[in-house]
Design a protein that fits this description.
It is built from twelve helices and no strands. It has about 230 residues and is mostly helical.
Length: about 230
């Protein structure tokens, strides 16, 4: 509990120390493959990921995964979470092929274990879409972002900020493809949600304004661009 609180506060060194103390206590009484150890390994991995120490994050996430693979059935949601965590680290490292490998392992479990409209499935599609976007495979990125978006449309109220983020992601892909009219369409949908959901001076409103302004700038419509910058 202390480790979680310190991690949430950004006190990463202290969080690792707290988790390592817990780990020492558990290891005196539990076998090395006990699921409780896996949870601590996972928590330490998360702290190192937050610190940007990706090699250490991988080390602990992989220890977590090895225990869970022995302890859980192959389609258990906790295994999906472990695969996803490793995918996130590889994604952060810019190793997109490895990120995709682990995101897809996580996704296959989610597809079997969850209903087709579950938000975790949307998050899974979104993660895969992000990797394809980073790899420059924009048609695949759109495919997965749109799958994610369809679930979110059913699962969330129409003015939910996660829907705004989803519209923004799709707009970003169209922008990367140079399709500025489609980019504007999705950026404006995102912007409308943010306008309804946030107070007028909220810093998160700056991003959609800037995005729309940048598109008009790319289109050569500088007077419209200035309205948004």
């Amino acid at each position: 509990m202390l480790g979680i609180m310190r991690n949430d506060k950004g006190q990463y060194t202290e969080a690792v120390s707290s988790y390592e103390m817990s780990l020492e206590i558990y290891r005196r009484t539990l076998p090395e493959d006990h699921p409780s150890l896996a949870d601590i390994y996972n928590n330490i991995g998360t702290v190192y990921n937050n610190m940007g120490d990706y090699s250490k994050a991988l080390e602990f996430y992989e220890k977590d995964l090895e225990i869970k693979k022995k302890a859980l059935p192959p389609n258990h949601p906790d295994l999906a979470r472990s695969y996803n965590n490793i995918g996130v680290v590889y994604h952060n490292m810019g190793d997109y092929s490895k990120a995709l490998e682990f995101y897809e392992k996580s996704h296959k479990i989610h597809e079997k274990a969850l209903p087709s409209n579950h938000p975790d499935l949307a998050a899974s599609y979104n993660n895969i879409g992000q990797v394809y976007d980073n790899m420059g495979d924009y048609s695949k990125a759109l495919e997965f972002y749109e799958k994610s978006h369809k679930i979110l449309e059913k699962a969330l109220p129409s003015n939910h900020p996660d829907l705004a983020t989803s519209y923004n992601n799709i707009g970003l892909v169209y922008n990367n493809m140079g399709d500025y009219s489609k980019t504007l369409e999705f950026y404006e949908k995102s912007h409308k949600i943010y306008e309804k959901a946030l107070p007028p001076n909220h810093p998160d409103l700056a991003m959609p304004y800037n995005n729309i302004g940048q598109v008009y700038h790319n289109m050569g419509d500088y007077s419209k661009a200035l309205e948004f910058f």
